[in-house]
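Supplementary Methods, section 5.1.

A reviewer requested that the exact input to the structure prediction be made available. We therefore reproduce it here, unchanged from the version used in the analyses.
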Amino acid sequence: MKARLLVALIGAIAASSAVPAAAVQAAQPFELVSDVKVDKVTLADGKEVHALVEPAVVVPGDRLVFSTRYRNNGAVKAENIVVTNPIKPGIALAADGSNDLVVSVDGGKSWGKLALLKVADGQGGQRAAQATDVTHVRWVLASVAPGTSGTLSFNAIVR
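The structure derived from this sequence is encoded token-by-token as follows.
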């Protein structure tokens, strides 16, 4: 039962991670498409082999890769494109690579590098924020030339 809930949660995350492409294209010719995959690790000849697969069933500890592909389909450069991905309950930002991201630990009210953010410690004070405190990840694309595309991604772990 818990695995089904997590699959439903992942589906909801993928659906809500970025603005649907059709909605964006109606307003402007900039496309965003969200995706989530499970990083399945197997052993082959004594070495770990990673494969990104569709999340049929996930369990606590599974590593996820959330991606948002973007493409400027227009004739002019797009500037200051903000892409925000919420991290839903049941999912935690993976600590590896988290220091390179701009994140929020307060529901998207404020943003910064994880190492610079603080959260309440539950005793009236504050402590350094950790990857598990992150509620959102954000990127700002300063300029995207016509015909240019790319992918933004972050790693997470099923709680």
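The CA atoms of residues 78 and 144 lie 5 Å apart. These observations are discussed further in the main text.
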